[in-house]
Amino acid sequence: MSAKPSNVILIGMPGSGKSTVGVILAKRMSLDFVDTDVLIQIREDRTLQAIVDADGHMALRGIEESVLVCLDCKNYVIATGGSAAYSKPAMTYLRRDGVVVFLNVDIDTLRARVSDYDTRGLAKRPDQTFEELFEERYVLYQKYSDIQIDCAAMTQEEVCSEIQEALGR
User: Could you tell me the domains of the chain?
Assistant: First the structure.
């Protein structure tokens, strides 16, 4: 890894604000922005939910990993899909030139924000509840994050300020 990583990688649960915060943060830091869920949908020419419906949640995770390890960008804010942390190869690759920021939001706030749990295209087992998914992923987000921002009670601008302060930028 270079002395100063050029990318800021956002990880966290669906509803944590990765895409929205990512756009604002990129503007504030004069960086480019990419949402890897969008890259997946463009590459596959179908929605995340269509991938899960047709091929299953593990197929979506595999596609996500292949998209992440092929990213070739510098000076970007990268909003990952909520399941990115399942892939050790992808997270290792992203961390080579990036700082990983976990947007931590409590389960109650997430539940209020995510109303389309069953149709959102989540890479989860068909029988898995939102709480089970949260518990399973929380450990991974903590494992791979360099910075954790507890952002449930913050505005998007405040989250960006906290990230910039933590990055020293």
Answer: 7-163 (3.40.50.300)
